[in-house]
Amino acid sequence: MTEPDNKYEGQFTAPYTPSAEEQLARRSRNRVLGFALATFVILVGVVTFIRLSSSDLSKSGFYYNFKDKAADEEMELPPGMDPDQAAPPPSLTPIEPEADEPRGEDL
Question: Which segments cross the bilayer (predicted)?
C-alpha cells in the first residue's frame, strides 16, 4: 500500500479570528463580569467582618483560647444525665505538662 503525499489535505481549516466588534463586545463583557466578581468578593468580606466583629468570642470557647472565661463557669448537665455518667472513666489519668510548656494560667 502506498500512502498519498497530501494525506490530510482539506481537513485543517484556518483558525477563527473575531472581528473588531466581537473583540469589543468580549472586552466589555469581561469587564462587567470582573466588576461583578470583585463586588461579590467585597460583599462577602464586609459581611464576614460585620459578623465577626459583632460576636463575643470570649464566651464561645473559641479555638486555642487559654484565657477562656466560659471554662471557669460550671456547665450544666443535659436533662436526664447524672454526674456519675458525666465523669471521666477511672482508667483515664491526666497527663502532667512538661516544665517548659506554657499552661493556660501562664499565658
Answer: 32-52
- The answer to pTM > 0.85 is no
For the purposes of burial, counting CB atoms within 10 Å of the CB of 15, is it exposed (0-12), middle (13-18) or buried (19 or more)? exposed
- As a whole number of angstroms, the distance between CA 48 and CA 42 comes to 10
Cell of 25: 463586545
* pLDDT band, very low/low/confident/very high, at 33 (cuts 50, 70, 90): very high
